[in-house]
């Protein structure tokens, strides 16, 4: 990760350029003008990681430009990161500067925070962690009011919790989320909240069922489950599945069946290519799917999964790569039209775009 060129005076023009780029990509499909959801101009990023660089006998937070691991950009503060991260950075640095136990062969620090104020710090080492390290890390965690995870080759020590707790408000209801250390979470909490509300509104109140692919920790699953009869959700990451199950339970949502399958495997199951033991007890024929929700990785949906979504009346698609989104829409354009689209500025001051479309059958 390189340091974004932080200049709030350029924000509006950058956002306008992104909106124009999305319009260009979706123009061949007669898309309506995108709804544009902006980001806070500063302190929007809830998670970040830094390498450490030794200079003048001290370790400093550092980042590097892509392809250059030899010329560090030393970091004292990080204005795009949450206020909580900026509060913790100097406190943590002061702690390792006076403690050989904490600093010896420490090479990377990761911060994970939430809008709700929770925080977790991961400290990664090129050495085994011992009882002396754990004792000092426990004192540091208490002093900073955070959880700490220590990582070394083949070992992980958790002090406190190995997740943070988030609260996001969708349509007036507060949803609580466990976000595990090391697992994917949306980095921009304020924009994530806007995404959830847009998806909730775009799906609408339904009387049929929802299929969700790539559900992660249940970020979208929780609010969307309140709009349909029942949900079948899939995710391949074991840690994300465990977090999603906990989040469903914590929020009292009982109309979701979650299975650990990839999108490609579920496609095979629905096409009756082969059975899966992980679907034992789930009657796929009992579902009356009217909508499918997808939030795929940057590569987008593979052709078979994209073809699977064609079966549904409504396709609600959140994308972190508008180019692969456009490729998927090109495959679906003969059967579905774009009814709504949106730009979510998850990553200000970069070229990255998060977007959403609602496709409905022609």
Summarize the structure in words.
By secondary structure, the chain is of the alpha/beta class. The chain folds into two domains: 208 residues, 3-Layer(aba) Sandwich (Rossmann fold); 118 residues, OB fold (Dihydrolipoamide Acetyltransferase, E2P). It is 30% helix and 29% strand. It has ten helices and 17 strands. The strands form three sheets. Strands 1-16-17-15-14-11-12-13 form an eight-stranded mixed β-sheet, with helices on both faces. Keywords: Methyltransferase, S-adenosyl-L-methionine, Transferase, tRNA processing. This is tRNA/tmRNA (uracil-C(5))-methyltransferase. One of its GO terms (cellular component) is cytosol.
Summarize it.
With 362 residues, this protein is an alpha/beta fold.
Topology:
Elements: H1 11-26, E1 35-37, E2 47-55, E3 58-63, E4 73-75, H2 83-97, H3 100-103, E5 106-113, E6 119-125, H4 131-144, E7 147-152, E8 155-159, E9 163-170, E10 173-180, H5 189-203, E11 209-213, H6 221-225, E12 231-234, H7 238-250, E13 256-259, H8 263-270, E14 289-294, H9 303-309, E15 314-319, H10 322-332, E16 336-344, E17 354-361
Parallel strand pairs: 1-16, 6-7, 11-12, 11-14, 12-13, 14-15
Antiparallel strand pairs: 2-3, 2-5, 3-4, 5-6, 7-8, 9-10, 15-17, 16-17
GO molecular function: rRNA binding; tRNA (uracil(54)-C5)-methyltransferase activity, S-adenosyl methionine-dependent; tRNA binding
Function: Dual-specificity methyltransferase that catalyzes the formation of 5-methyluridine at position 54 (m5U54) in all tRNAs, and that of position 341 (m5U341) in tmRNA (transfer-mRNA).
GO cellular component, one term: cytosol
């Amino acid at each position: 990760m390189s340091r974004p060129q932080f200049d709030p005076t350029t924000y509006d023009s950058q956002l306008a350029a992104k909106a124009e780029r999305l319009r260009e990509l979706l123009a061949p499909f007669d898309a309506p003008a995108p709804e544009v959801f902006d980001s806070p101009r500063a302190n929007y990023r809830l998670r970040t990681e830094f390498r450490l660089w030794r200079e003048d006998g001290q370790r400093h937070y550092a980042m590097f430009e892509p392809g250059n691991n030899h010329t560090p950009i030393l970091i004292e503060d990080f204005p795009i990161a949450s206020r909580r991260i900026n509060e913790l950075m100097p406190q943590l640095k002061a702690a390792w500067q006076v403690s050989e136990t904490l600093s010896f062969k420490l090479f990377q620090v990761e911060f994970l925070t939430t809008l709700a104020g929770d925080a977790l710090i991961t400290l990664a080492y090129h050495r085994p962690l011992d009882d002396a390290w754990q004792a000092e890390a426990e004192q540091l965690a208490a002093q900073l009011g955070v959880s700490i995870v220590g990582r070394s080759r083949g070992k992980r020590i958790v002090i406190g919790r190995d997740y943070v707790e988030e609260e996001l408000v969708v349509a007036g209801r507060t949803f609580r989320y466990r976000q595990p250390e090391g697992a994917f979470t949306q980095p921009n909490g304020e924009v994530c909240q806007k995404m959830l509300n847009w998806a909730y509104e775009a799906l609408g109140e339904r009387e049929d069922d929802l299929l969700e692919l790539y559900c992660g920790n249940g970020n979208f699953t929780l609010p969307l489950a309140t709009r349909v009869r029942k949900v079948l959700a899939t995710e391949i990451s074991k840690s994300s599945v465990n977090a999603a199950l906990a989040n469903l339970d914590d929020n009292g949502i009982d109309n979701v069946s979650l299975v650990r399958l990839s999108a490609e495997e579920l496609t095979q199951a629905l096409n009756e290519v082969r059975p899966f033991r992980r679907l034992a007890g789930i009657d796929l024929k009992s579902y009356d799917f009217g909508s499918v929700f997808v939030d795929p990785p940057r590569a987008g949906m593979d052709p078979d999964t994209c073809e699977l979504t064609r079966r549904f009346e409504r396709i609600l698609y959140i994308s972190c790569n508008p180019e692969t989104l456009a490729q998927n829409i090109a495959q679906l354009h003969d059967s579905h039209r774009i009814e709504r689209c949106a730009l979510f500025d998850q990553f200000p001051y970069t070229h990255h775009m998060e977007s959403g479309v609602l496709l409905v059958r022609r």
